[in-house]
Design goal:
Blueprint (H helix, E strand, L loop, with lengths): L2 H4 L9 H12 L8 E3 L2 E3 L20 H13 L6 H10 L4 H13 L5 H16 L3 H10 L4 H8 L4 H16 L7 H14 L4 H14 L12
Antiparallel strand pairs: 1-2
Helix pairs in contact: 4-5, 6-8, 7-8, 9-10, 9-11, 10-11
Length: about 230
């Protein structure tokens, strides 16, 4: 009898499922941790201390003021912003409040943050481009965090004639799409459009009446006061 014949048979012999389980347990057993060299000698990490931290890739913690300054400069590149907009951006980036206040004060001192200039710039871009009236512009500036008195001084620079001409341009453009509706409906839609742009009802009705008449249509009989 040979040596192999003396060896007892495995416990899974004759049972395929048991044999598969035995095989998969061996196949899925975790491999030994790879050895690493220590002064030329192989050393196993199993049970040993973790490898030393690589100090070459450590980055020093960024200075909050330097980070905040870069955020402000990035925000001001190519576009004026109100102080509140900048403060909100710094807050969203978790800049400490005392650092944010100190930097914003410094930026104001050198003229990089100027709510008066911002208000005038905002009006110059929104009034002719979007044909917005003073009321709508005042609401936008308030949402931007501009002080009401600062906004009022900038809004006072708007020429009333320019505001009226902007309203007329809006009505003339909208009239092109209202050729198939009756005059009463056209009047209601045109006045509503001007109201959404911030125009008072008195000016809105007067402009709509004039523009409807100029196009050969009848306008509202009376204008309402603001």
């Amino acid at each position: 009898m040979t040596l192999e014949e003396d060896r007892p048979p495995p416990d899974w012999l004759g049972d395929v499922s048991t044999g598969v389980d035995a095989w998969t347990r061996r196949a899925s057993a975790p491999a030994a941790a790879p050895a690493v060299e220590d002064n030329g000698r192989p050393v196993s990490r199993r049970g040993g201390a973790p490898p030393p931290e690589d100090t070459a890739v450590q980055v020093p913690e960024a200075d909050p003021e330097s980070v905040a300054r870069k955020i402000l400069l990035d925000q001001l590149t190519g576009q004026a912003r109100s102080r509140k907009e900048l403060a909100d951006k710094l807050s969203a980036k978790n800049v400490p409040p005392e650092v944010a206040t100190r930097l914003l004060d410094r930026f104001e001192e050198v003229g990089l943050v100027d709510d008066e200039a911002f208000a005038r710039s905002w009006i110059a871009s929104r009034q002719p481009g979007k044909h917005l009236a003073r009321r709508a512009l005042a609401q936008e500036l308030r949402r931007k965090g501009v002080d009401d008195e600062v906004a009022r001084e900038a809004l006072d620079e708007i020429d009333p004639a320019d505001e009226e001409e902007a309203a007329r341009a809006l009505v003339r453009k909208k009239l092109r799409s209202l050729s198939r509706v009756d005059d009463t409906t056209a009047t209601r839609r045109l006045v509503g459009m001007l109201a959404r742009k911030g125009y008072g009802s008195g000016l809105a009705f007067a402009v709509v009446k004039d523009e409807l008449a100029a196009s050969g249509r009848e306008g509202p009989e009376t204008a309402m006061d603001d």
